[in-house]
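Field guide to reading this record: the first block holds the primary sequence, the second block holds the structure written as discrete tokens, and the final block holds curator observations. Each block starts with its own label. This record concerns Aldehyde dehydrogenase, catalogued under organism Komagataella pastoris.

BLOCK 1 — SEQUENCE
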Amino acid sequence: MMLEYTQVEEISSLVDNARRVFDSKVLTVQNRLNQLRNLYYVLLDHQTQFEDALNKDFNRSQFETSRLELAQVFGEILYVMRYLESWSKPQKVEYLPLSFGTTYSTVEKIPLGVILIIAPFNYPIVLSLSPIIGAIAAGNTVVFKPSELTPNCSTLLTEVLQSCFDYPIVSVVNGGITETQKLLKQKFDKIMFTGSEHVGKAVSKAAAEQLTPVILELGGKSPCFLTSNCKATKIKTLLSRIIWSSFVNSGQTCVAVDYLLVDESIYSTVVEESTKILEEFYGTITDKSDFTHLIDRKSFKRTVTTLQKTKGKKISFGVAHENTNFVPPTLICDVSWDDETMRSENFAPILPIIKYSTIEDAVSKVKTNHDTPLACYIFSEDPREQRYILNNLRSGGVCINETMMHVGLYTAPFGGVGNSGYGNYHGKWSFESFSHSRTVLKQPLWAEFLIKARYPPYTKKNRATLELLDKGVVWFDRSGNVPSRRSYLTKVIGCCGLMVTVAVALLAKLVF
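BLOCK 2 — STRUCTURE
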């Protein structure tokens, strides 16, 4: 299917219209809930069509589309709708310094404006709609650029998003590089991009020209540690979770296990058991099987080249087919850190397996070669070992004795760190990311007699009065450890000090 591209000369006016809609339509919380309700039901009505569309685009298993995309979107919409009213309420500032004691201060959430969301091909439903849900919940309008690599899904997304809202709050721009470049020249209030590090840099650079903040979700080589502190009887269970993560969606997952690090004492057992599981899962696989293919010929050729250049031992069941961009799931054993499979994110049904001698050495190699991955997976039953990896390796997210499930937890933040991106989204964090936290301070007129000491002419007496109000109670000495919590006596002294300070301030007013 050919995707109908948006005319380049129409993009500027389309973005301008999104701005006009935002300026003219103040979306109340009730309005936003109604729009999310509409989105929920239109997706429910088109669930089968979305599954069929992605099956046509790259032989995506309908089971994977249902479980890994649509189920999460439905759950996230319901979660956001359930709590949106409470998230939207102004929050009272928890602590007011004494000099602000007469004020009433709150923090309210206001929409940013017009949001640009650029989505990838690999999970084109959830990675499009999850940020759109958050942007709408926060009261914004959206300009959405779906992937041109999934034409059937992008066409359906375009039709659905243009039909289900009471207001034209979501505009869709379809196209490739030219259309995206034109989009990035427009002024937005925030941009969210999910994709490769290379394109992410270009998006960030273009956004900087407009002083536009960005959220980048960039992926990377996510390591998986399988240590000797795992019960032998559980090895099959652990490896099943790891192999599923590496090969679901044909490895085209930003948080897939990109490579497996195995303690040398259990390495041979792991290779043997992994081969059995691979055969159990994919032993009869062909290009006609219910297994997702690579997205295009470019990805196919890159993957085949990697497999040809690797010096590791390849284990697979099946034969690659260029005409359908099919590559069978492949384990690669005895891999070194300088192997072809370790140069960049594989993003393919390839799982390199590396032997290590100590966990300290393994963590050091990860930091040296692929620091700040989007995900880190730890398979160990030793809490101290788990904590060592957590303390010494930065990552966007972590799973212990599990893989990828943290991404589906839409009630918790998801995002990268360092080279794997920055910014969080999902549920409340999407609402926060697409909102501005605005402080609103109210000062009563009757308080003038307490604050007029700030006015010129500046005198020593006025300064002394204000300093009494400004300085808080110190609960720590010049040296030694700072107490984590103030003692009961300190609290009493603090309360007394507060009362004394207020009394002195009032006395100063009367005397001076």
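BLOCK 3 — OBSERVATIONS
The chain has 18 helices and 16 strands.
The chain has three domains: 28-93+103-218+427-437, 223-415, 454-511.
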